[in-house]
Amino acid sequence: MNSNWTGIESSGAATGALTGTSDETSPWPRGRLDSELRFAHKIDVAVPPTGLGERFNAMLDWCGERLHPDFWNCHGHTDPARRDASGQPMDFTRFYFLEQADAAAFRHAWL
């Protein structure tokens, strides 16, 4: 576990690909909106100023090797409500999971 990373898991009512097409009526890409609605288990991984680098690729590989594509997804977002030490809004990569056990295994492996 890297102590510089924070992970926040939330549950709520919430498919899309890693990239989505924009919906003109929504501020979110279509894939992200679908994921927010479809997947109940969400884990935010804080993105440091230098980015996640190869760790992000490893996280994607981990999910791809262990989970059916319909059971997970991820999207990036900035959360203006959460601020870093300098007061700037924080960037996150949000991982979405259909099953709580998959979310727990991801958290154990990466956070």
Describe this structure in words.
- The protein has a domain of 76 residues: Alpha-Beta Plaits (2-Layer Sandwich).
- The N terminus is likely disordered.
- By secondary structure, it is of the alpha+beta class.
- The termini are close together.
- A 4-stranded antiparallel β-sheet has the order 1-2-4-3.
- The radius of gyration is 14 Å and the shape is globular.
- The chain contains 3 helices and 4 strands.
- Helices cover 30% and strands 29% of the residues.
How would you describe the oligomerization state of the chains in this entry? single chain
Secondary-structure element string: EHEHEEH
Strand segment tally: 4
Would you tell me the structural class of the helices and strands? Answer: alpha+beta
Query: Remind me, CATH topology of the domain at 35-110?
Result: Alpha-Beta Plaits
The dominant shape is: globular
Mean pLDDT: 80
Using the CA coordinates, give the radius of gyration. 14 Å
Give me the side-by-side strand order of the main sheet: 1-2-4-3
Give the CATH level 1 class of the domain at 35-110. Alpha Beta
